[in-house]
Amino acid sequence: MADVEQGSALPSDALSLDGLNATVSNGTDSVNATAAKFVSSPEGPALAYGSLVFMALLPIFFGALRSISCAKSKNSADMPETITSRDAARFPIIASCTLFGLYLFFKVFSQEYINLLLSMYFFVLGILALSHTMSPFMSRVFPVNLPNRQYQLLFTQGSGEGREEIVNYEFDTKDLVCLCISTVVGIWYVLTKHWVANNLFGLAFALNGVELLHLNNVSTGCILLGGLFVYDVFWVFGTNVMVTVAKSFEAPIKLVFPQDLLEKGLEANNFAMLGLGDIVIPGIFIALLLRFDVSLRKDSRTYFYTSFLAYIFGLGLTIFVMHTFKHAQPALLYLVPACIGFPVVVALVKGELTEMFRYEESLSEADPVPKDEAEAEKKEQ
Predict the structure, then answer these.
(1) Active site annotation includes 3
(2) What is the pLDDT of residues 173-184, one digit of tens each?
(3) Neighbours of 25 (CB within 10 A)
(4) Other CB atoms closer than 10 Å to residue 231's CB: what's the count?
(5) Residue 221 in contact with residue 336, Cβ under 8 Å?
(6) Does residue 272 sit in helix, strand or coil?
(7) 278 an active-site residue?
(8) Which of 278, 293, 299, 372 is flagged as catalytic?
(9) Which of 34, 49, 249, 316 is deepest in the core (most CB within 10 A)?
(10) What is the pLDDT, as a whole number, of residue 71?
């Protein structure tokens, strides 16, 4: 799924999005990578990697918090997409086929035209993702003296009692302002491919993925992360497919930060990169543990903070190993054991391991509860 690599700056992650709810499905289609070229000043790489780690934590933290309440939304576009154990088991196979398909495409067809199509695709998705990300902030800063009109976009099929809703989207003036700002960022990205515009889109994609993609239970999360662990190691160490696609793929599917920022300012061009898949995949598992904390109806957020710190540890270990052995490293090789192992150990110590693995949620549950409590409520009814 990802590799951490030294060398020339490569397009790192191929997190292809088919709408917001396909974020993870295509999140491992190509590559997540951290690519770096050593520079003379040690402060440059340190600033770059520190900034990447900080940026990676933002969508995980805020996306997890927003995932708690997103199921209460009335808009179908804001409803979470639930990943089942069957989806998780099939995902590494689908991702492998997609990755190899992209590899063949870049071998057969012109790279220029493929990336042009990808740029337009991500231009539209980036505007929608960034607009959705900005919406809560806009609600706080929108002037109270300005009218906030309500709108509804309704598209139906048929008539009368047999009429079926295809699209039913409600929005207001605040959403239109967010859309206008996002469009400006999108045009900026398409015209210049500037790294700041790239990061704005990348952060929006990652936050939407963590917020809107829900694992239905911890076992599903372990299946998904375990499968992608094998996927990542195989495609990084076993073949050159992932690196080939990474060199060819141009899209805002990674976070970048220049290592020569101190020397060249905003015009710097020697980038360290972190693929979005290394954020979204562990992030949806961390968000699940936060919702499990909420379901326990306690004041503490033990499992969320444990997994959050585990992610920091795993990402830091990835960077450390890369610099120690001077060789590309699959990031999930370190992130998966950390993000699963740390919370499991805490659950064992607290005697809540069984309760953790019995916890289950569904789309219809705005306030998810453990499976045994849900069954008890059904019996009482």
Answers:
(1) no
(2) 888 999 999 999
(3) 21
(4) 22
(5) no
(6) strand
(7) yes
(8) 278
(9) 34
(10) 53
